[in-house]
Amino acid sequence: MQEMLKLISDRVEQLKKAIKKAGNEQKLFPDGQLRVSSSGDNIRYYNILKSGDVTGKYLSKKDMKQISLLAQKSYNKKFLSAAEKEVRLLETLLGKISDGGADKVYEELVYSRKILVTPYIQTDEMYVKEWKEKKYKKCCYRVEEKRYDTKAGEKVRSKSEAILADMFYEMKIPYRYEEELLLKNRQVRYPDFTLLKVKTREVYYLEHFGLLEDDEYRRHNLKKLDEYRDNDIYPGKNLLITYETKDSPLDIKGIRKMLKEVILS
Fold first, then answer.
1. Percent of the chain with pLDDT over 90
2. Full-model pTM
3. What residues does 176 pair with on adjacent strands?
4. Domain boundaries, the chain
5. Which end of the chain has fewer CB atoms at under 10 Å, N or C?
6. Pairs from 210-214 (Cβ < 8 Å, separation ≥ 24)
């Protein structure tokens, strides 16, 4: 719901900026109305200045600036009419949806009734609960290496992964650790973290690279990134990457900012 409200609000803002720009342009337009006549490849332009005139004054190629302004004037008028109408409709819609819409009926039920009712539209809270409780296959490779505790009560392989997991926990970002991911070629991979963007109910993957100085480790993970890309998983779409080296420690502040903008926005 919030994602839809944002899309509508963004559209209204876009329209209002365009309406303001179109309004400011009106003082630039010359008098008259453009008439276009075409015969085959031959196009002629005329400026109609008087009411009732169906012919208008002929405009030659040297009048092309005036022709363009008259064409823009006609477009401007039609655009303003349509844009202002759309803004009115969207703002009315925003007002109605902002009041809660159909979702509000369930949300306003008293607890004693709410526990008896199954909503027709699943709330974000219910979706997250179901997503968290759903069992999934975890990586069972060298389980003994998972010795770092997280606030969610699980164990991970490194201090940095524990920091990341605790960050997700504190920011209320639903996540799964080393969940099985089946690729198109039937190969199985285990991304470090699978994150849920609640507002859109989309899944994002996060890989943490902690040994970039190691050549073999680096080659292995570059190959993994290639495999992900072949499966439509890549940065800028649904893959987040964090890293650290001896000279570049984990950027906690930067990662928090990234998560806010990508997962929580």
1. 77
2. 0.69
3. 194
4. 2-106, 124-262
5. C
6. 210/158, 210/160, 210/243, 210/244, 212/243, 212/244, 212/245, 213/245, 213/246
